[in-house]
Protein 1
Amino acid sequence: MCIRRILLPLAGMSHAESALGVGGAIARMFDAHLAVLHVGTDMQEVGPLVGEGLSGAMVQDMIASALKESAARLNGVRGLFDAFVTREQIPVVAVDSPLSPVGMHGLSASFIAHSGHTRSVVSFQARLSDIVVLRQPNPEGDVSSSDTLHAILFESGRGVVIVPPVAPPTIGKRICIGWNGTSEAASAIHHALPLLKRAEAVHILHSPAYQRPGPEARHVRSFLSLHGIMANIHEFGSDSRPVGEDMLDMAHTLGADMMVMGAYSHSRLRQMILGGVTRHMLENSDIIVIMSR
C-alpha cells in the first residue's frame, strides 16, 4: 500500500497551520498529492435555521450575513493554503473535477472549494483518498470539526491522521500501536502501514483492561514482521487511572510522536457519556493519532 492522495478538510483557520504542516510533510514523504478541501455554507442548510415568524427582510439579512461569513472563511483558508504551498515549495495543480486532480505525479497540492452538506462532501471526498489529515477537534464545543471527524470515521472507511494544535517536531519516527484485538485497531494498522514501514521504532502497547476478544499483541508483532516491520511489545496499565491516560503516558515514556489505534470499539454514545480511550485521546493527545473504524 502506498499513499498517493491525502485529503485535508479545513473548515476554518483554527489550528490550520499544524494540520497543513503535517499533511504537507506526509505528502512529501510519499511524493503524494495533498488535496485541501473547504466546504462553504449551503443555503439549503441555512434556510431552515432562520425560523418562522421572521419577515422577508430579516431572512434576507440572515442569509446575507451567513454568506459573508462563509466568504470570509474561504478567503482566510485559501490565504493560508497559498502561503503554505509557497513556503514549502509544493507545486499546485488544477482540478478538473472535485475528485480528479490533474497532473498528480510526484509531490503536489490542490485547493478544492465546495458548497453543500459538509458531512456528505467530506465523506465522499475521503472515500477516494488514501488517508485523511484533520485537526484535533476542540473539546470545548468546536462542532464542525467534530462532525467532520465522525463523518470520516463512520462514513468513509478511511484512516484519519488527527493533528494536535501544536504538531510534534517529528512525524512518524517513533510510532506506538494501541492494540486491543478489535477490527477497528486492525483497520488502523492497515491504514498506517506505509508510515509504520518508515518508522525508526514501532511499539505495540497492550493492557488486560483494554483487550477485547481477538488477536493478541504477539500476533500483531508476527503480522508486522511479514511486512518487514520489527516491533516491541509493552504492557501498560494501573489500577487507579483510566486506560486512555495510561496508554498516552506510555507513549510519552517511549518518546513516540504518533499513536495508531482503533476508534470507538465501544459505542460513540457510551463513550460520550462514560468516557473511553477514544474520547480521552481526542481530547488530550499532544501527539499525532491515526484512528480508524
Protein 2
Amino acid sequence: MMPDDIQRKLKNLGIMPAKIRGQHFLLDEIVVLEMVEAARVSKKDTVLEIGPGLGILTDILIEKAGKVVVVEIDHMLAQGLQKLASNKLKIIEDDILKVSLPSLIKEKKYKVVANIPYNITSLILQKLLEGDFVPEQIVLLVQEEVAKKIVNSDKKTSRLSLFVEYYGTPCIIRRVKKCAFWPEPKVESAVLQIIMHSKKVVNDREAFVPREYFFKLISAGFSSPRKKMINNLGHTLGMDRDVLFSVFDKIGISRDVRAEDVVFEKWLDLAQTLYQNK
C-alpha cells in the first residue's frame, strides 16, 4: 500500500490522523505478513486486534484466523471497517483500556496481533498480562526503543522488562523503518513477540511470594535508578540495612549494585527471601 492510498481512504472517511491517539497507519504488507506468521495464526485461532485503523492487518487476519475481534476507538475508522464484512469479524467501537476482554472474547484461548498506539504501550501490556484472561501469545508493533527495553537488549533491566518477564518470554522479530507508516512517526519501530508462560509457572511463583509484593519491591528498587538498589529499598520500604546486607550476601547480589543490573531471577530470589523473612 502507498501513502496516496492511505490518504485517499482517510479523505473518503473524513479523517485526519490524530496525534493524541498515536495514529500512524502501516503501509508495509510484508511487515503485516511477518507479524501474522510470528503469531502462527491458524483457522483454529481467535485473534484480538487493537487499533485496526484502515484494516491492512485485519484483512490478513480474517484470511488466516478462525475468528477476529477488533477494538477501534475512532468512530469513523470503526465504520470504515464494515467494508471488510465477514462472519469471522467482530468490530467493537470502544477504548481497549476500558473494555472487559472476557466480554469480547468468549473463547478461553486467544492471541493478540496489533499495531498499537505507542503512547499507551505500557497500559496495553498491563491490561493483557495481568488478570486471569491472558492470551497465549502477543505480537505487537511498538516503538523500537521500548521493544529493546523490554528484551533487555543492553543487558539492563527495567520495571517494564521485569513486569513482562514475570508473565512471558519476549523477543524482537524485526525492526521496522519509519517509512513503513503514514504519517511517518518520529521514532523507529519493531515487532515484539511475547510467548506467555503457562498458568502453572505464574501460579508457582505466586505461591512463594505474592506478585503485589514482587512488583512493589521492584518499584522501590528503581525509585532512584542512579542510586544503589540497597539504599532505595531501605529508604522507600523502610527496611533494615543490616537485614538487607545479609539477604544480598546470601543470594549473591552485590551491595553496590543498581536495580538495572539485577536480572529477573535474582529479583525473584530477593523477593522470596525478604517475604519469607518478614
Protein 3
Amino acid sequence: FFEALIFTNCTEDHLDYFGDFDTYSRVKRSIFKDNICKYKIVNVDDALGVDIASDGLANVVTYGLDNPADVFAVNVEEDKNGVSFIINLFDLIYDISLPLFGKFNVYNALAVCACAAIEGVKMHTLAGALKKVKPISGRAEPVAEYNGASVFIDYAHTPDGLKKSLDAMKKICGGKLYCVFGCGGNREKEKRPLMGEIAGIIADFTIITSDNPRYEDPLSIIREIESGIRKVTKNYIVIRDRKNAIGYSVNKLCRGDILLVAGKGAEKYQEVLGVKLEFSDKAVVSDFVSSLNGKVLS
C-alpha cells in the first residue's frame, strides 16, 4: 500500500513490451485505486490523467498548467538559468525559481509540491529546496560550453520526449539549435520517422546517428528516421558513428548556439549485437570540448 502515487503522463513508450498504447494506458491506470494508494496526485493536462481524476476515487489531488487544478502555475518563464513561475498550491501563492530546464520540469515541480504539501511540508521549505536542485544526470543536463555555445545531453528517446526537450532548448537558444540523435534497434519502428520529422521541424540542423542498434543494421534505422525528416527539411546530415557525429556537431558551434545530444542521457554503454560497449555521450562531449579548450561542466 502506497501513501501517495503521482501520475505524470502517458505517452507512446514501452510499446515493444506492452504491445499497444491502450494496454499501456490500462496498466498505468490500474495502480491508481483506493486499495493501492491513499493519495493520488494526477496531472490533468494529460488525457489519461483526466480519466483517472474522474474515476470517483478518494483523495485525488490534481495539478497542471492548462486545465483547472488544485495545484497550478502561472507566469512561467524560461531562460538559461532554468525556469521560474508562480505556484498556486491549494490557494497559497509563492514565487518559485528552479535551476532546471523545460516546461516538463515545471510539471514535475508541481507534482512534488502537491505531494509534499499533503504530507505537511511547508511552502517556504519547498521553495528553498527547489531553488537548490541540481541538474539530473542525463536529463536536459548542461555538460559543456564551447565557443560561446552550450551542450546538453538528454535521455529523450520517444517522439514526445524529443519534442519536449527540443522545445525547451529552443526557448533558451540565442543562435542555432543543433540536435544529435538516433533510435534504438529492436524497439518501436513506427517512432523513427516521427522523431525525424520532429527534429527537422524544431532544430535548425540535425545530425542523425546510431543509438543502441542492438541486432538491427544501424543504417536501416537511420534510413527510417530520414524518411521522416526529409518531409520537412534538408538541413540534416547522417554520421553513423555516434562519437564522430558528436565531434562534428561540437565543431559547428558558434556563440549563442545550443547542441542537444539526445537518446542516451546518462547511459554508459552502446548496445551492439548483444554486447554493451563502453560509451558515454557526456564523456565524448567532454573529451571533444576539452581538446578545443572549451569548458566542461561538472
